[in-house]
């Protein structure tokens, strides 16, 4: 059975961030992920993890000025110094949180530039970052994201991500395969799981219903089927990673809305 992690940036929106750890543990999660931890001292987060018996499975490196619309720095020529400072901060958090994965967001294609213009910067930044992460046993993840949610994002398709891994050539850079984005951009999910998971280069999955990014049992995808595919391929490929529940609960910030919406997980755990 896949191990499911609660994405605390999206789940439990009715609670202050630091209270979401306890809520996730009460709902039976053993792992958590979130986008950016940097508003909180790492020791505070580590205390929440330990106090609730949770593992930190993933978080993101600093993305640049998120409130101004930036979505990562890795592909941006001229921003290398800020990219490096951010990566160093992420690795400090990873050590305190004992987190084995950091997602490095690619960034937006600047006006007038093309993906091919930015490729060399992206590859060099990831190579440098991989060498920094390696002594800490941290995997760096790259995530293809759909351009409806993030217009102009540099990395959109699974085949692009795997082509970039070939070029980066560092074993601790892997793919974060978000099935929500993958369905919107390219579809054919079961075949892509079967193609890419056995390569050993997919380290983490994320899920949400499509198109509304609500619970996985809403929308056009049959996640029961996809979880069985992941289970089957994982057993043959010795993959033992996590599936991040990265969706916006349909009940929004209504009290208890996230927990009520976890019927899909309770049914899956009960084998239904
Ligand atoms: O899918 C997403 O949106 C996230 O996994 C992420 O890291 C960037 O927003
Ligand atoms: Mg994602």
From TrEMBL:
Q: Which UniProt keywords apply?
A: Isomerase, Pyruvate
Q: Which Gene3D superfamilies match?
A: Divalent-metal-dependent TIM barrel enzymes
Q: State whether keyword Membrane applies.
A: no
Any one of the GO BP annotations = glyoxylate metabolic process
Give residue ranges for domain Xylose isomerase-like TIM barrel.
Answer: 21-267
Tell whether Isomerase is among the UniProt keywords.
yes
Q: Which GO terms describe its molecular function?
A: hydroxypyruvate isomerase activity
Q: Where is the active site?
A: 143 (proton donor/acceptor), 246 (proton donor/acceptor)
The record's similarity note reads:
Belongs to the hyi family.
Protein name as annotated = Hydroxypyruvate isomerase family protein
Q: What is the species of this protein?
A: Ramlibacter henchirensis
């Amino acid at each position: 059975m896949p191990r499911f992690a609660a994405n605390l940036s999206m789940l439990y929106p009715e609670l202050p961030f630091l209270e979401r750890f306890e809520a996730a543990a009460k709902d039976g999660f053993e792992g958590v992920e979130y986008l950016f931890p940097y508003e909180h001292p790492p020791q505070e987060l580590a205390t929440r993890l330990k106090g609730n018996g949770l593992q930190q499975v993933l978080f993101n490196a600093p993305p640049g000025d998120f409130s101004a619309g930036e979505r990562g720095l890795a592909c941006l020529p001229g921003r290398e110094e800020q990219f490096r400072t951010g990566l160093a901060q992420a690795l400090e958090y990873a050590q305190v949180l004992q987190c084995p994965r950091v997602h490095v967001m690619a960034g937006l294609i600047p006006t007038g530039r093309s993906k091919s213009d930015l490729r060399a910067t992206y590859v060099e930044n990831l190579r440098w970052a991989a060498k920094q992460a390696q002594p800490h046993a941290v995997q760096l993840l790259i995530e293809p994201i759909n351009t409806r949610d993030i217009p102009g994002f540099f990395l959109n398709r699974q085949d692009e991500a795997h082509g970039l891994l070939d070029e980066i050539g560092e074993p601790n850079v892997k793919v974060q395969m978000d099935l929500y984005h993958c369905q919107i951009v390219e579809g054919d999910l079961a075949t892509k799981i079967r193609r890419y998971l056995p390569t050993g280069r997919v380290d983490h999955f994320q899920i949400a219903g499509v198109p509304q990014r609500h619970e996985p049992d809403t929308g056009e995808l049959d996640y029961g089927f996809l979880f069985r595919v992941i289970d089957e391929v994982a057993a043959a490929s010795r993959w033992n990673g996590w599936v991040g529940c990265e969706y916006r609960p349909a009940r929004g910030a209504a009290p208890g809305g996230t927990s009520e919406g976890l019927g899909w997980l309770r049914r899956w755990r009960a084998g239904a």
